[in-house]
Automatic annotation (TrEMBL):
Its main location: membrane. Signal peptide: none annotated. Residues 671-779 form the Transferrin receptor-like dimerisation domain. It is a single-pass type II membrane protein. This is Inactive N-acetylated-alpha-linked acidic dipeptidase-like protein 2. Residues 431-595 form the Peptidase M28 domain.
Length: 795
């Protein structure tokens, strides 16, 4: 005890010095100079502290302490906070706040043994603790609301892109489309397709489109003869033109252009007198029934258009031995408002391209084959009114409000003499092609196709609607390009020539640039025949694009009745998309307005090209609002495909489409179903493991995105069958119509199998489908293996 008392003064001094040294060490940062450790400086600090203690012992100390206690605590607290931030683990393993918790006597020694210091220390600790809690809560709130209000990079990017698309599309106005349409129709009256092509090129160039050029091909065209074709009743000698007008001189001069345009391009020409045999729609069952009843060799078939491709039905008739065909559209298959009973029409028997150069382009020096006609049949389109005269029936066959189809009485024998007059000659057709080069992937192309009038073709106005729409989109797009923006991928705008004769312009251009297009084309957007009615929006898309198209439909529908949920399908369509779908396997999309009734009619009626008056389009869409809608729908799809980092294609939808196409009563499909199941598994894995990360900017790797896009754009190439029935799509993902969901080639082979009592054709079709599904499954698996190997290489 005494030893302790004797050393108390020295201990007090040492305690003060230790307390000072602790504070000094705590406050020293690693970057401080060594002069902070100087003994003279420490001694000076001790003297100052000793003098301060003496002053505090003088009278008035209590008052000073009370007045300044709060300020002192505040300053100490602030100093503590600053020191806590500056302390580094290497200098002070235990922070000051941590020492206050671990050393119970540290606070007491630091503040010296004043009577009220313990209360001040407690207040200081409470303030520090409260401040820390408040800051902690405040930090949590900032983080929460920052995360809530600030979207992810992916969401933000998509929002900005959507805003950009809407800024471009809002400049599209119906009045501008109407003006362009009327200007084109004025040019059309000149009957010179060269002037139309020049006008389109000049207009696109004036809008700012880059590198607009003509691409010309010399091709073999089948044109109307010098006089209209005719059909004469052998019994009475009455002669009629295809529209049912008598073959008198006055009638021939009246509407002579319409009469000349009523023909079948590339039909055999000549004269045939024979018996008419009603074959209805000309399917395999119809022909089997008729063969069992009478001799059909070299007879004339009375054939209805629709339900099956015309080229397919003509191939069956030719194989059966018929010599001629009178082709018509039954009024019961048309909307009541159509009123086309007395109108004849044009059809083309050309499957695609220049007939004289099948499979290769019609460039200078190409070998020309002698293919003046593409069938041995004499084919002549006629009006429903003429059919009614030939079979002695009223053309207004209705009973109790129900339309009765035209048909020849079973045992009635009618002999006619048909004369087909056409001429074939080489003509130059012109494509107008303009380019907007992409910013980051200029070697990837989105092709947008319309078509323009070709000399000597039918007098329709669909081409003017098509051209006006593509021009309106170019105008809106180039306004933004002039402000410095460009899409990531290139957009190629094409106005095709020779469409009415079998998509000749697009086929020849495709064959000419086949190697480049096979590798680089991403998608084809068709603007063929955009206004065919005014009551229902009808969309056709590849399976991989159906999800994207359905989203756009839902966003743009302003009346629910115009947008049924099931109106997006993969069915065969008319127009220049044919080459890109069936020879390049390119995903495609087309928007059009139809009449609701026409959607319930037999398919393939659009193969008939009726000569319409110039005001017909404006009657269907007087304010051109439907034109504006088609332009905006097509434009948004074009922009999204051209600008999204990852192509908006859905791999899984292809696998699901394959499984749905195998539903039906066809036998021996169990092996196909098993293979389709494996394809779906591979597609699901591809979708989840590769597409999902690529759509997140935080996980996106440019090299992997490019690999992914290459796989997505080539998916449909696996479903191109080498040989299919005439008129059927080589791309087996497309169905004949909305009423059939099975693979078209399987359905056709099964029908023929039942009629011919042989399954060889059906087994061959099964093999084609099997190879396509297997190719797709291997393709997806190979893609997954490539991505895995890339990951292994990086690791």
């Amino acid at each position: 005890m005494g030893e302790n008392e004797a050393s108390l003064p020295n201990t007090s001094l040492q305690g003060k010095k230790m307390a000072y040294q602790k504070v000094n060490v705590d406050q020293r940062a690693p970057g401080h100079s060594q002069y902070l450790d100087n003994d003279d400086l420490q001694a000076t600090a001790l003297d100052l502290e000793w003098d301060m203690e003496k002053e505090l012992e003088e009278p008035g100390f209590d008052q000073f302490h009370l007045d300044s206690a709060e300020n002192q605590n505040l300053e100490t607290s602030e100093t503590a906070d600053l020191n806590l931030d500056s302390i580094q683990p290497a200098t002070s393993p235990k922070g000051r706040f941590q020492r206050l918790q671990e050393e119970s006597d540290y606070a007491t020694r630091y503040t010296r043994s004043a009577p009220k210091s313990s209360r001040c220390t407690f207040c200081r600790l409470v303030k520090i603790l409260c401040t820390a809690i408040i800051l902690f809560i405040f930090g949590i709130l900032i983080g929460y609301y920052a995360h809530k209000k600030c979207p992810s990079n992916a969401t933000s990017s998509r929002t900005l892109d959507h805003q950009l698309y809407q800024e471009i599309l809002k400049t599209i106005q119906a009045e501008d489309i109407k003006k362009t349409f009327r200007n084109l129709m004025q040019l059309y009256k000149s009957k010179d397709d060269t002037e139309i092509s020049k006008t389109i090129k000049a207009q696109w160039t004036s809008l700012g489109l880059e590198d607009v050029q003509f691409v010309n091909y010399s091709v073999l065209l089948s044109l109307p003869g010098p006089s209209p074709s005719s059909v004469m009743l052998s019994s009475s000698g009455q002669c009629f033109h295809p529209n049912s007008q008598p073959c008198s001189g006055e009638a021939s001069t009246h509407s002579s252009q319409d009469l000349l345009s009523s023909y079948a391009a590339y039909s055999a020409k000549g004269t045939l007198e024979a018996e008419i045999i009603d074959v209805s729609y000309g399917n395999a069952d119809d022909l089997k029934r008729i063969k069992n009843m009478r001799n059909i060799t070299n007879q004339i078939a009375l054939l209805k258009l629709g339900k099956l491709p015309l080229l397919y039905k003509l191939s069956l008739l030719e194989k059966a031995g018929f010599g001629g065909v009178l082709l018509y559209v039954d009024p019961c298959d048309l909307p009541k408002t159509a009123n086309l009973d007395e109108d004849a029409f044009m059809v083309s028997l050309n499957p695609g391209g220049d007939p004289s150069t099948p499979g290769y382009p019609s460039i200078v020096g190409s070998f020309r084959q002698n293919r003046w006609n593409l069938t041995s049949l004499l084919v002549q389109p006629i009006s429903a009114a003429l059919v009614a005269k030939l079979i002695s029936s009223s053309k207004d066959e209705t009973k109790d409000g129900v339309c009765r189809p035209l048909e020849l009485p079973l045992h009635e024998k009618i002999m006619v003499k048909m004369q087909v007059q056409t001429v074939t000659s080489f003509k130059t057709i012109t494509n107008v092609v303009g380019y907007l080069k992409g910013l980051t992937s200029p070697d990837r192309y989105i092709i947008v196709g319309s078509h323009h009038h070709t000399a000597s073709s039918y007098r329709g106005q669909e081409w003017a609607s098509s051209t006006a729409i593509i021009t309106a989109f170019i105008q809106a797009l180039m306004l933004r390009v002039k402000r410095g923006w460009r899409p990531d991928r290139s957009i190629v705008f094409c106005s095709w020539g020779g469409t009415e004769f079998g998509n000749i312009g697009s086929y020849e251009w495709g064959e000419d640039f086949r190697k480049v297009l096979q590798k680089n084309v991403v998608a084809y957007v068709s603007l063929h025949g955009p206004i065919r009615g005014n009551s229902s929006l009808y969309s056709v898309a590849s399976p991989s694009l159906q999800q994207l198209v359905a989203e756009k439909n839902n966003l743009h529908c302003f009346r629910r009745a115009q947008c049924p949920e099931t109106n997006v399908s993969s069915v065969q369509i008319q127009g220049d998309a044919d080459y890109f779908i069936n020879h390049l396997g390119v995903p495609s999309v087309q928007f059009a307005y139809e009449d609701i009734k026409s959607l319930q009619e037999p398919s393939f009626l659009s193969e008939a090209l009726f000569p319409k008056v110039a005001t017909k389009i404006e009657e269907m869409d007087p304010f051109f609002k439907l034109h504006e809608t088609i332009t905006k729908l097509s434009g948004e799809v074009i922009l999204q495909i051209a600008n999204e980092p990852v192509l908006p294609f859905n791999a899984l939808d292809i696998a699901l489409e394959v499984q749905n196409s195998l539903k039906g009563d066809q036998p021996n499909t169990h092996q196909l179903l098993a293979l389709a199941s494996r394809l779906r598994e591979s597609a699901e894995l591809f979708q989840s493991d590769e597409m999902r990360p690529a759509n997140d900017p935080r996980e996106r790797v440019p090299v992997r995105v490019r690999m992914l896009n290459d796989i997505l754009q080539d998916m449909e190439k696996n479903f191109l069958a080498q040989q299919v029935p005439p008129g059927f799509y080589r791309n087996i993902l497309y169905h004949l119509d909305e009423k059939t969901s099975q693979f078209s080639i399987l359905l056709e082979a099964w029908e023929r199998c039942k009629s011919l009592a042989s399954n060889e054709t059906f087994q061959e079709a099964l093999s084609k489908v099997l190879h396509s599904i297997n190719s797709a499954q291997v393709y997806f698996k190979a893609g997954l293996d490539v991505f895995d190997s890339v990951l292994v290489g990086k690791n």
